[in-house]
Design a protein that fits this description.
By secondary structure, the chain is mostly helical. The chain is built from six helices and no strands.
């Protein structure tokens, strides 16, 4: 009896499997897995499909989706009152340090490969360049 190769799943089956994996990751509160699966979703379905996915995930498990949305929303900036401000010393700009490279005492020797010598023969010499 010959072994039949397995048929690859349909796009709809792959989509449904990915949604189920996302739902499981949301229930488990597995942030790295959720981020990876959402990245795959965007790669395969496109950014425009995220709104439909979010609605589907929200309908399946509103509490888990709300948890994910609170993680994704930026934290509000703390409000400081005048009484909370402390007089800070003015910041002194630090001097910019440039990397110190060793200086060559003499130029590096020219390569002595025969092909380089042939190419240099086509270049004008220093006297010709100074005259121009």
């Amino acid at each position: 009896m010959a072994v039949r190769p397995l048929a690859s799943p349909s796009p709809q089956a792959r989509r449904q499997a990915q949604i189920l994996a996302l739902q499981a990751a949301l229930v488990a509160r597995d942030v790295p897995l959720i981020e990876r699966l959402l990245g795959q979703w965007v790669h395969r379905q496109g950014v425009s499909a995220l709104t439909a996915l979010s609605q589907e995930l929200d309908a399946a498990n509103p509490e888990a989706w709300a948890w994910w949305q609170t993680l994704q929303s930026p934290a509000p900036e703390p409000v400081l009152e005048d009484s909370m401000l402390v007089a800070a010393e003015p910041l002194v700009p630090l001097p910019r340090l440039e990397p110190q490279l060793p200086r060559a005492t003499r130029p590096a020797p020219a390569p002595s490969h025969p092909a380089v010598v042939q190419l240099r023969a086509w270049l004008p010499d220093q006297e010709t360049r100074r005259a121009a």
